[in-house]
């Protein structure tokens, strides 16, 4: 049975399977439907703290699933403005709703030029199997 992965046209993506939604200089970050499907049942997330500075392409937390633990890679540089505290008690929200309730954290971008390194939905579609 083929599983249809949702890829939203209004988001940016990374080759490490994070998605990014922009609202001015605030970027909301999560993992793609493909990533949550590959990981399987997510049981724990470690998110960056509010106020923490994160750097593009650098680990800033982790996602633990039954099958594996993966680094959470920040797609952009900036300061963490908010993290999804609902995931502390309910990490499975990432599996159920990766683009809505399962968002991970929000940053205020410090280097908007980094957006040029992100993938469009069409480009992301080409890199997933």
Q: Would you write up a description of this structure?
A:
With 129 residues, this protein is α+β, with helices and mostly antiparallel strands. The chain has one domain: OB fold (Dihydrolipoamide Acetyltransferase, E2P), CATH 2.40.50.100. Helices cover 17% and strands 34% of the residues. Strands 1-2-3-9-8-5 form a six-stranded antiparallel sheet. The longest helix is centred in the N-terminal third of the chain and has 7 residues. The radius of gyration is 14 Å and the shape is globular. The model has no long low-confidence stretch (mean pLDDT 95). The glycine cleavage system catalyzes the degradation of glycine. The H protein shuttles the methylamine group of glycine from the P protein to the T protein. Belongs to the GcvH family. Keywords: Lipoyl.
Summary of the model, kept short:
This protein has 129 residues and is of the alpha+beta class.
């Amino acid at each position: 049975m083929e599983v249809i992965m949702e890829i939203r046209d209004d988001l940016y993506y990374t080759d490490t399977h994070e998605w990014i939604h922009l609202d001015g200089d605030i970027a909301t970050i999560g993992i793609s439907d493909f990533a949550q499907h590959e990981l399987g049942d997510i049981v724990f997330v470690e998110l960056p703290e509010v106020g923490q500075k994160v750097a593009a392409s650098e680990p800033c937390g982790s996602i633990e699933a039954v099958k594996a633990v993966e680094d959470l890679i920040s797609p952009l540089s900036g300061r963490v403005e908010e993290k999804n505290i609902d995931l502390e008690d309910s990490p499975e929200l990432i599996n159920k709703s990766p683009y809505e309730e399962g968002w991970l954290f929000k940053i205020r971008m410090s280097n908007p030029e980094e957006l040029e390194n992100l993938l469009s939905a069409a480009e992301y579609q080409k890199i997933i199997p």
